[in-house]
Structures are given as structure tokens and as C-alpha cells.
Amino acid sequence: xxxxxxxxxxxxxxxxxxxxxxxxxxxxxxxxxxxxxxxxxxxxxxxxxxxxxxxxxxxxxxxxxxxxxxxxxxxxxxxxxxxxxxxxxxxxxxxxxxxxxxxxxxxxxxxxxxxxxxxxxxxxxxxxxxxxxxxxxxxxxxxxxxxxxxxxxxxxxxxxxxxxxxxxxxxxxxxxxxxxxxxxxxxxxxxxxxxxxxxxxxxxxxxxxxxxxxxxxxxxxxxxxxxxxxxxxxxxxxxxxxxxxxxxxxxxxxxxxxxxxxxxxxxxxxxxxxxxxxxxxxxxxxxxxxxxxxxxxxxxxxxxxxxxxxxxxxxxxxxxxxxxxxxxxxxxxxxxxxxxxxxxxxxxxxxxxxxxxxxxxxxxxxxxxxxxxxxxxxxxxxxxxxxxxxxxxxxxxxxxxxxxxxxxxxxxxxxxxxxxxxxxxxxxxxxxxxxxxxxxxxxxxxxxxxxxxxxxxxxxxxxxxxxxxx
Length: 470
Fold this sequence. Notes:
The structure is a single chain. By secondary structure, the chain is mainly beta. The chain has one domain (10-270, 342-460). The protein contains three helices and 23 strands. The chain has helices at 10-14, 74-80, 345-355, and strands at 91-96, 105-108, 120-125, 165-169, 172-177, 180-189, 197-209, 227-239, 242-252, 260-268, 272-281, 284-294, 304-305, 315-316, 326-328, 332-335, 360-367, 370-378, 383-387, 390-402, 422-430, 436-445, 448-460. It has a 17-stranded antiparallel sheet that branches. 51% of the residues are buried. Residues 1-87, 89-156 and 218-224 have low confidence and may be disordered.
């Protein structure tokens, strides 16, 4: 049986986490100290926001936004041409193991791991090369601290087309987003001796020219136009009679509102949609949240069901599972701190923490319309983790959450990460790049909870330093 319980939760938030789009004022910087920018995503179908702002479209069906492929630099092209030197940039990789172990093997650094099948490697284009945070400015030259710099006319593409997309804010740790990355994870059900594969999780990031309206074509000249970045996490799976297909997408846009657009669409045994936007509106930084619900009562004949008995009339259904019977509720607006992020963007906050060599990072996270205090902490030493994609030296990331003093009526135990993952989370990220390689926690499946492991099975477009231990 298969369950693709999505899971890279906040776990993911801390890695893949895990994390968030900057909701506060932010800028993006690249190799060139005079180029800064903010951006977001795009897709094949128009975005349905319900708000008075132009937003780049996102593809809720495929789960991946298409973007302009990054061009490898001369140095990376030369690196990629060496057959004996694997690289994830210029010539990015897609690695998939022939046989996935039932559970990851953890051993102390230096120990000998059991032999395993070598992953197959397929060439691809468009890679991301991590750059030290110390080489990137925190603000656009001439800008004042705290200024909202989301004007597309002031945000430009980087001089290096392979540089990661960088979001930075005086109140938020920098966030590096690879330009064209894909991570594929197997979801394994932990049942002791038997550990069946019940689903998969796919995490992608795309960066492309920004367009304020779906009707306007993006310019082909990356040197004079702003960019947008979108990250997505899709979970697919089946367990017994329960099926799941959930897509979570976050877009970072170079504009005041929405500066961040976060969406979640679930189909299968349960159907629901949620949408959250963050940004500055009428001089205040706000969160606008809405969700759908089953239609209560209406006159639409398509919402009526046939009677059970001959003497009954057709009547409006009551809480059925049909997606076509769900309607959007009115949006709710609340104040939000300018430095908060969403759940999916938090993953990249965690990854950047590792890239910058930091041991801890603290920030605020907005989940639906609830604000949380989050602290991520890196372990002191590494361990060797074996997953289907290979063996990696990894740090464990611990996650601490709390309810801000300004929030009432909630308990810390109410927190859950991406795809509802919760419990005693165990999150392991590659030691140099922060790419999540293994996560374990509880995932809700209808009325029950499953103990699952999320293991990296394939990757493409990752930072150059990310590769299995040979």
C-alpha cells in the first residue's frame, strides 16, 4: 500500500524546509554588490488571489513553476566538462538509487558504511552555486534600513546568472534560494522490520523574470528587470483507502503587496484550499488569510443529492467530500510583524543558516493566520546518514516553537509543520549546504497518525558542494 504522506514539515521548515518567504521589507543581493532584488514565481495558469494586486501565476496542477533556465558560467561549464569530477552546478545532477534501504543507517563519522548501489546520474541544465553571506549587501545601495524595497524598477537580475536568489531583511536572516533545484524524497512507513514505501515528497525552487501581470510578457534581458522566486513542496501518497495529493507553493514578489503569496491545495480523500498573503497595505504590514469550506446551503442544483426514499425530495448535501462543493470563505486580515515568514520559506532559512556557518537562528513564522516564535539549532557534531540518494555527513536540526506573548488562546502543542508533520521531529541536513537528507515524525492520515521517515532519493540543481560521499 502506498501513502505519500507529505512530510518535510517544519522539519522541512528547518531545512527544506521548512521555510518562509520574507514578509517584512527585504531585498535580494547577488555577487555584484550593486545589484539587489526581490522576486517570485510563475506558472501556466493565472493566479486566483481574490485581492487587488497583480501576482505572477502559479501552477497548482503540476506543482512546479517554470522558469528561465540559468546559464552556466564559463568556470562552471569547464567544471561540468570534467567526467571524473561530479558537480551540481553548470551540469546539475539528478541522482536516484537503484534500491532504497528500509531505513537510513546512521554511524559516527569515520566509520565504514555497508556497500550500496551507485546512483544513476543524468545531466541537466541550470544550477545554483552558494555564495557566502559576507559577500552580499544587506540593503540596496542608498536605501535606508527598514525601507520596503519591492519596486521592480529597483530590483535587477544578478550579474552572475547562476547566483542563488537572496532575500535579506534587517529583521530576518538571509535566505538563499537555488535558481532551479529539485529534491525528491521517498516517504517510508516505520513499522519495525517492514518499512514500506508509501509515497513521495518533491521540493522545487525556480527563479525567473518578474512580471506584474500575467498579460505582460517577461523581458528577455535579465540585466534590466526584476526577478521572482517560487518554491513548492508536493506530497503524494496512499495508505489503505486514504489517498493524498497536496501542493504547497510560496512565491516571493518584488512589490509591496503581496510580497509573499503562500498557497496549499489538497485533493484525494480530503479536499481543501488555503491561501495566505503577506505584505504592506495602507501603510501597515499585514497577513490576509482565507480558506475554503463546504457549502452550507445554496440553490445550486449541482450541490443537491438524490433522495434515498421515493417519498423524499432532492436536498442539499451535508458536508460531502466533493471538491466542487467547496467555496471560499471571506478573507481575514490581521497585523503581522514585517520579519515573519511562511512555513515553506522557513526551510530555506534553515538551509542558509548552515551555509553561513551559524549554530542558531530565531524568527517568527505565520501559519495560516497564527503567529509563532521559532528557533532552529544546529547540532555540535555530524553523523553519517545513508539514504537512497547516497551517504552524507549531516547535522541534526532541533526545532523549538512558542506562542508569542501577543497571541492568546493557543498552546505550543498545537504547532505542526509542512503537511501536518509533528511530534518528536528528527531532522538531518547535509553539513555544508543544509540540504535536508532525512526527516522523521508523525503525519496525520485521516483519523490516524503514521510514523514516517522522509529520505532523499534524488536531486538536481543543488549547490556545487552538495554531493554523496564516495
